[in-house]
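Standup, Tuesday
Yesterday: got the pipeline producing structure tokens again.
Today: sanity-check two examples.
Blockers: none.

Example 1:
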Amino acid sequence: MTEPFNKGPNCWQCQHFGISYDPKLPYLCRLMGFKTRMLPAIEVLRADGQYCQGFTPKPDPQESKLPKSIWA
């Protein structure tokens, strides 16, 4: 029995992941430069046999790098 895809990187949490306007290839990886019908991490696993090595987590929106207001 095969194990479900749950140990590798989550494309939805990667800063290189994007949505394309192509209905046939709706997902894209900006780092590797390709569009795909499935999540890019699954395509990388299928093609390479390894989990995606380019995963970079999205920055935390709660930790803004803007300086705090002097009025707050």
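Example 2:
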Amino acid sequence: MSSLRHDDEEVDFDEEGERGGGDITSSLHPEGHPPPSSSSSSPPRALKKRKSEGQTSLHVKGRGHRSQEDRGEGGRPHSFEVLGGEGGGEGGAAKSIEGWVIMVTGLHEEAQEDEVVDRFGEFGEVRNVQMNLDRRTGFVKGYALVEFTLRKEAEAAIEGMEGEEMYGKEVRVDWAFMQEAPGR
């Protein structure tokens, strides 16, 4: 945001959002500065009143009060920077912080973590398996996240386990994290 200019005034608001005093100048000290805040727990909200070329406009400062210049199309914030670095490159897969994660869907509700580790361990070292349970029933929700150290191991697991049966149900296997398409 821009800093205050010498011809700007600030007006403090009390906790209910009301200005202290009747008009803008009544809440200012003789030097033209706002009075110090009595509560140190929360900073006061302030308004800037600009006097430029005879026009008066109020600018609200603080969270949730952004000007249209700070926003992109449709009132949304401008897009964020995309970080480069280690990624999946081709294939659209993205590496998580600790390894390559694949998502296994279509798991039987009575599937056990040990069985998933054994089946996917045939393709490489399984670093971690996350199987969420339904709180009501205590059974598996039907999916698991399996983490591998190396991308080639995860790719082999996707190719080897896609469409295979576990506990009599066909499982689907794909990357858990995908990179955004170029140009977006």
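Quick observation on example 2: Confidence is low (pLDDT under 50) at residues 82-89. The domain at 100-175 is CATH 3.30.70.330 (Alpha-Beta Plaits).
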